[in-house]
Write a structure and sequence with these properties.
Elements (H helix, E strand, L loop, with lengths): L8 E5 L11 H15 L3 E5 L15 E3 L5 H11 L3 E3 L4 H14 L1 H5 L2 E3 L3 H8 L1 H10 L7 E4 L2 H11 L3 E5 L9 E3 L2 H14 L5 E5 L5 E9 L5 E9 L12 E3 L6 H18 L4 E9 L6 E7 L4 H10 L3 H9 L26 E7 L20 E7 L2 H11 L14 H10 L7 H10 L4 H8 L3 H18 L6 H9 L4 H8 L3 H10 L5 E4 L13 E5 L13 E5 L10 H16 L3 E6 L14 E4 L4 H14 L2 E5 L5 H12 L4 E2 L3 H8 L1 H10 L7 E4 L2 H11 L3 E5 L9 E3 L2 H11 L8 E5 L5 E9 L4 E9 L12 E3 L6 H18 L3 E10 L2 E8 L6 H8 L3 H9 L4 H7 L13 E7 L25 E7 L2 H13 L7 E5 L5 H13 L3 E4 L1 H9 L5 E2 L15 H6 L5 E4 L8 H12 L4 E2 L2 H16 L7 H5 L1
Parallel strand pairs: 1-2, 1-4, 2-3, 4-5, 18-21, 19-20, 19-22, 20-21, 22-23, 35-36, 35-38, 36-37, 38-39
Antiparallel strand pairs: 6-9, 7-8, 7-9, 10-11, 10-13, 11-12, 12-15, 13-14, 15-16, 17-18, 24-27, 25-26, 25-27, 28-29, 28-31, 29-30, 30-33, 31-32, 33-34
């Protein structure tokens, strides 16, 4: 069936901010959808609150609404835009829940809009656990024994039949939020209680435990003619009990017998038909009992999922793109495969290689979080690698994670340590595979390790072979050609071989090149080389024949940003993709190197060539070498992908590679505080006093001469890693002890901390002659909170015109002094009307996408063009930059950070503290744009955390240092008609200022003699609508922590700074007086 001609316009619902469990794989699928629909001549309307993704750039849709994804707002968009259909299967759980909301409100019926991709009944059959269980039974499959419960009484009754351990899963949540495994009644009450709160329908499912079983998933697609294809089978190396998003996964499945695989295939086909997903993709998960082969169907997602992104990148079969075509009426046999150009999409992909995906975690950001891996997803990103064998793919994936702890090593292990390893590997944690590998190196048998971990013996045998190879490499004797070739084809890196041999990495590389041992590049072709492949999507292998084609056009190599992590998210991928698009338009060929399967940069049609390789010096040098043989290479762009490629720039340059844009020496100038201090001194700019210390004594002397509080951090970091504000010698000493291992041979920096300063963020372009100021943002939270976690507003609200002129002059002086070519981000602070320079980063920053959307200027595109030698003057003439002047914000835009507090618990089950500080902890961001600050801030809060209350009860508790600044907003709340509760000190203070309030007991006071409830009891009883609690000085004071945690667990908005408190008053007064406005970016920028 060809295109459905009744569809002239489609509303695509995006997935909102990046959160744990719903990351940029949905930006990748949503971007694909927009591109497909526009290519078919359909008008695309997009709603998505996330500014960091390339999908919300005005060029990807005809009308882009950067608005909160709520049924109310989407209804207003539908009324205004009148689309023919809504596509909600490509925006994760956020989009599905919004679509169901639209259906329940009657919006779809009222405006005559149809849901395409999956209808509400199919979504419900896939998502509602009871309906799905009945379908599995109907097609002859089996589900785990389970009971649905809505109250704690029902839960305790059900567990009698199911026995412990029991799995708890709330309905309609994403990434396993609120789920867990309870081994006894205390744990059950704790997990199930949270589950009832997290589920929008207050419903949880208890089911029998299948911990330790093998876990598989199949990616399935079906069209409206009932053609079904299985795109990919994926096996979890970690057995059941660890969320699939936190598991190491392998494609294709390695340990299934053919009979078992056929059973899973048949079940998948029967299920997708019965559920009725007839235009798109879905993902079905299975558990198989290794003892007897019993198969249980765990669940299905009736939408494109995290695994779909992985399956797409693993096979070269673009699931999201094909799902979109199916949704508008095409069938699988009518769609051609982009890679072979001859086979149709109904032709199932075959793999002649192995793909391994590893999760990347951020536990170091949440020091008090429970590190155990459970059924609640906790990873923040992932890396994928492709090899000709499992061991090659695994070893490449491990080094793609950019964690030195992840890479296999072979130290001497004592018997006591071995015993310890065998114990600790029983509990799944981030580095369990490394524990397994070390234990087997120390002599543990496959049976012992299998008993402790239930990891399939086939994988354990592979690790045994890797260890055996390490033993051979470590033998004295020469590095023969045969030895090196075998080691490399098993995935050993030059540095691993160097450590085993006790020589330097350079020596190994020289020896290998001298022997002519270099990788060749194979192609991901969807058909195991049966047909010719036309898209150069490559992976390395140590074999005979390379598939890199010669070319004549000059090429630019762009280094991506590797796995997502806190501090380096898709904002950097955004810049890399823009660079690729704009350089292709300018007549260059672009070559992308990256290892993150979730992003747009690793799509096979973003660049002319894609290399799916780890971002390490060795791997990048080999790609550069292969491409230099293929044709002219202009150089490598390292300043767009965040800290990962920046860290490689100096090594690449030392190996004779041309670095485009700002030179590594200039980058070093800005990073190295002494050198940067000299530039500031020459230009007569001020910075907070600082010193560099390489010992504890030195640090304490510096701190005492500057005066406390001081900000301490290691040099060369991204995302405020290991940064702290300390108030005395003891706290400083404690920091030094912990920080010395963060970056070896880099000293610790000690800065004067500017209390209560206004922080300013500037993004600018410099071409060596002229400066283009992209935007001057003002942080809403005061200095001391990491810029990535602070809400910010553009245009800056409290900066005067004189100060703005001073900021522009200072920016140009720094850009000229550092000698930037491209983007530079500078953070300033204004304290007592003096401008201080905090730091400068001569690279694309995380605010580039936000500034680009707020001003309509594509900064990343301009930076890429400047790096290949174009000038700002040329770019103005071409229309990429405005013909004169700097970037001008349209409307008032607010960016707010989204934080993952609800994902983490302490080991005892209590929440981790929701306080912001100098270390970055947010996973994503949202944007609100409107004519006034109050409305934009309200939109940003609704999009990030759910709505602010228009009336009700507010609890206020202010630290002494915040009491004076808190008076005005407290008065504001009182005038808005809120009932104010406060604890002793704050209540007394507010009364002296004439503000009425009710005193409540602190948590530490306990319940009163007449049963008066404490503030935590009142929050838990749901009697409070908003919590304002500013933390006292250092550490987590028990009272404040208990209040903030209770608020997070009850999903009550919780504000921890006085600046946020004031902004909330503006936002609520707007919400009380008028409805939210909507306007597309295209209209704002017109």
């Amino acid at each position: 069936m060809p295109l459905d001609t009744s569809i002239k316009s489609v509303l695509v619902i995006g997935s909102g901010p990046i959160v744990i469990g719903q990351a940029c794989e949905f930006d990748y699928s949503g971007t694909q959808a927009c591109r497909v629909l526009r290519a078919e001549g359909i008008r695309v309307i997009l709603v998505n609150s996330n500014p960091a993704t390339i999908m919300t750039d005005p060029e990807f849709a005809d009308a882009t609404y950067v608005e909160p994804i709520t049924p109310e707002i989407i209804e207003r968009i539908i009324a205004h835009e009148k689309p023919d259909a809504v596509l909600a299967t490509l925006g994760g759980q956020t989009a599905l829940n919004a679509a169901i909301g639209l259906y329940q409100r009657g919006t779809l019926a009222k405006y005559g809009v149809k849901l395409i991709g999956a209808d509400v009944d199919a979504i419900n059959r896939g998502e509602n656990r009871e309906l799905f269980r009945a379908i599995v039974e109907k097609v002859g499959g089996e589900s785990a024994k389970s009971r649905i419960c809505h109250t704690m009484e029902e839960i305790l009754f059900a567990v009698v039949e199911l026995n412990y351990p029991v799995v708890v899963r709330p309905s309609f949540t994403m990434g396993g939020l609120g789920s867990g495994i309870a081994f006894d009644e205390a744990e059950l009450r704790q997990i199930a209680g949270a589950g009832l709160r997290h589920s929008p329908t207050s419903e949880v499912l208890l089911e029998e435990s299948i911990i330790g079983w093998k876990e598989y998933e199949l990616e399935v697609m079906r069209d409206n003619k009932d053609n079904v294809v299985i795109v990919c089978s994926i096996e979890n190396l970690d057995p059941m009990g660890v969320h699939t998003g936190d598991s190491i996964t392998v494609a294709p499945a390695m340990t299934l017998t053919d009979v078992e695989y056929q059973k899973l295939r048949d079940l998948s086909m029967d299920i997708i038909r019965e559920v009725g997903v007839d235009t798109g993709g879905c993902n079905i998960q299975f558990a198989v009992n290794p003892a007897n082969g019993r198969i249980i169907v765990i669940e299905m997602n009736p939408r494109v999922s995290r695994s779909s992104a992985l399956a797409s990148k693993a096979t070269g079969f673009p699931i999201a793109k094909i799902a979109t075509k199916l949704a508008i009426g095409y069938t699988l046999d009518e769609i051609t495969n982009d890679i072979t150009k001859v086979t149709p999409a109904s032709f199932e992909p075959t793999l002649d290689y192995v793909v391994v995906k590893l999760p990347r975690f951020a536990f170091e950001k949440f020091a008090d979080a429970d590190p155990r891996l459970t059924t609640t997803m906790k990873s923040v990103g992932e890396a994928m690698a492709i090899g000709r064998s499992f061991s090659e793919a695994l070893m490449k994936a491990l080094r793609s994670l950019e964690r030195k702890e992840a890479i296999f090593s072979w130290p001497a292990v004592t018997p006591a340590e071995l015993e310890q390893l065998l114990q600790s590997m029983k509990i799944p944690t981030e580095y369990r595979l490394q524990q397994v590998q070390k234990a087997m190196w120390a002599g543990a048998s496959i049976d012992q390790v299998f008993a402790a971990t239930k990891i399939d013996p086939w994988y354990l045998r592979q690790i045994e072979l890797i260890n055996a190879q390490a033993g051979v490499i470590a033998q004295p004797g020469e590095l023969s050609s045969e030895l090196l070739r075998t080691a490399k084809s098993q995935g050993f890196s030059d540095s691993q071989i160097a450590v085993l041999r006790g020589v330097s990495e350079d020596e190994v590389r020289k020896a290998r090149h001298h022997l002519g041992i270099r990788p060749v590049y194979k192609t991901v072709d969807t058909c195991a080389a049966e047909f010719e492949a036309f898209t150069p999507y490559h992976y390395s292998s140590y074999e005979e024949e390379t598939e890199v084609r010669p070319r004549t056009t000059p090429a630019v190599i762009i280094l991506g940003s590797g796995p997502n992590r806190i501090g380096q998210g898709i904002e950097f991928d955004y810049s890399c993709v823009h660079a690729s698009f704009t350089l292709r338009e300018a007549g260059y060929e672009t070559i992308m190197i990256n290892c993150n399967p979730e992003t747009v940069s690793t799509d096979y049609d973003t660049s002319n060539r894609l290399y799916f390789e780890p971002l390490t010096l060795e791997d990048v040098l080999e790609v550069v070498h292969a491409e230099t043989l293929a044709g002219p290479v202009l150089g490598v762009i390292t300043q767009l992908g965040g800290q990962t490629p920046l860290g490689l720039a100096a090594g690449l340059k030392a190996n004779g590679v041309t670095i485009l844009g700002t030179s590594p020496d200039a980058i070093n100038l800005a990073e190295e505080r002494g050198a940067f201090g000299n530039i500031l001194a020459q230009q007569e700019l001020r910075a907070p006093e600082f010193g560099m210390a390489s010992s504890q004594l030195e640090a304490i002397n510096i701190a005492q001469s500057i005066g406390y509080p001081v900000l301490v951090r290691p040099s060369f970091v991204l995302g405020g890693r290991g940064m702290e504000i300390v108030y005395d010698d003891a706290a400083l000493g404690g920091f030094i002890t912990r920080a010395t291992d963060i970056t070896p041979d880099h000293p610790v920096l000690v800065d004067r901390f500017l209390d209560n300063a206004i922080e300013i963020d500037v993004d600018a372009l410099f071409d060596g002659h002229e400066l283009f100021l992209g935007g001057v943002m003002e942080h809403i939270e005061e200095a001391g909170i990491h810029s990535g976690d602070s809400a910010c507003v553009l245009p800056s609200m409290t900066v005067t015109d004189e100060q703005r002129a001073e900021i522009r002059i200072a920016t140009e002086k720094i850009a000229r002094g550092v000698d930037v070519r491209g983007l530079i981000n500078i953070q300033f602070a204004i304290a007592e009307n003096t401008l201080y320079v905090l730091e400068a980063n001569p690279r694309a920053s995380r605010t580039v996408p936000f500034v680009s959307k707020a001003t309509g200027v594509p900064l990343a595109k301009a930076a890429a063009r400047i790096s290949v030698g174009h000038t700002i003057e040329q770019l103005r003439a071409e229309g990429i930059l405005p013909s004169q002047g700097d970037g001008v914000p349209r409307g008032i835009s607010v960016k707010e950070a989204v934080l993952p507090w609800n994902r983490f618990r302490r080991t005892d089950g209590r929440g981790v503290d929701a306080v912001l500080g100098p270390e970055m902890r947010s996973t994503g961001e949202v944007m609100g744009i409107s004519p006034t600050f109050g409305e934009s801030y309200a939109k940003s809060q609704i999009a990030a955390f759910g709505p602010l209350p228009k009336s009700g009860t507010v609890f206020i508790s202010l630290a002494d240092k915040d009491k004076a600044t808190g008076v005005e907003p407290a008065l504001g709340f009182s005038e808005l008609g809120f009932h104010i509760l406060a604890t002793d000190g704050t209540a007394e203070f507010l009364r002296t200022k004439g503000i009425e309030c009710t005193t409540v007991r602190k948590h530490s006071d306990g319940t009163g003699t007449l049963g008066e409830k404490t503030i935590v009891d009142i929050i838990n009883a749901g009697e409070i609508d908003l919590v304002i609690n500013t933390p006292v000085g250092r550490g987590t004071r028990a009272d404040g922590w208990a209040i903030r945690t209770a608020a997070v667990q009850r999903s009550i908005p919780c504000i921890t700074t006085t600046a946020g408190f004031s902004a909330a008053v503006d936002a609520i007064s707007f919400l009380q007086s008028s409805p939210l406005s909507i306007k597309s970016l295209q209209e704002w920028l017109a």
